[in-house]
């Protein structure tokens, strides 16, 4: 801790991170041990976070992340989308295919930004708000590969016909962005993705990651 930081705020944020990393919640004692502070401090932190609906406690006394976190999270998507749009526009125009930014939302992949090329005769209609399982489609598979440390040498994932018959996709994960798990990709009506598309998608994902840091 430095003189410019708040120890109390730091501890409160650490509580939220600890609770976000567990599905079953944590007791006051467990939080006390993990934070290295006494139970009285933890009680005060939880009471303050509960007032803002960022934490809730069940009947057994276990603390869990509260619904207030969801309200804060809804404001993240517009900010991420705005930062990603320049790279997505460039990608869509360069490749002549629909470009998208996809983020993890629970157990699903959620398209939060979509840009269609302006010069093509036809392209895949892909809409912001579209959801699909993480293990289907290039966007979700790229995210899972990064999560599992299973990225191949080129750093991108290719699929065909998993979400739409006749459509192929390429996607690369966002890397090195704290708190954001997602991918950048393109989808096109083709039997196979042209060779140059994968590296171009990796470059676009890197541009978006840089914009979000």
Automatic annotation (TrEMBL):
CDD domains: HTH_ARSR. Residues 6-67 form the HTH iclR-type domain. Keywords: DNA-binding, Transcription, Transcription regulation. Residues 68-213 form the IclR-ED domain. This is Helix-turn-helix domain-containing protein. The keyword Transcription applies. The keyword Cell inner membrane does not apply. InterPro entries: ArsR-like_HTH, GAF-like_dom_sf, HTH_MetabolicPath_Reg, Tscrpt_reg_IclR_C, Tscrpt_reg_IclR_N, WH-like_DNA-bd_sf, WH_DNA-bd_sf. Transmembrane segments: none annotated. It comes from the Bacteria.
